[in-house]
Amino acid sequence: MTAEKSAEVRRARTELVATLNAIEDRLNVPKRVLRQVQRTRAEKPAVFYSAVAGAVGALGAVGWLAVRVLGRR
User: Fold this and answer.
1) Up-side HSE of residue 9: CA atoms within 13 Å toward CB?
2) What single DSSP character describes residue 70?
């Protein structure tokens, strides 16, 4: 194989890897959500912790309601 062909093959492989990584980033929703959560935590900690507190409160309310409903049976 000539040096020119070898360089062309390396370039094609690099482009293929970049394309596959871009496709994976688009289709991997959990990875995208985790990345967004980490970015929000770093850039806007007040928003992040408010969302965490709201989620914990909502889960607590659902649990409390479940205990009340099941306790009446």
Assistant:
1) 6
2) H
Residue 52 CA: distances (Å) to CA of 30, 55, 61, 73? 18, 5, 14, 32
Q: Which domain holds residue 57?
A: 3-71
Q: How confident is the model over 19-47, as pLDDT tens digits?
A: 999 999 889 999 889 999 999 999 999 99
Structurally, how many domains does the chain consist of? Answer: 1
Query: For 72, which DSSP code?
Result: T
Contacts with 32 (C-beta within 8 Å, 6 or more apart), sequence order = 25
Share of the chain above pLDDT 70, in %: 99
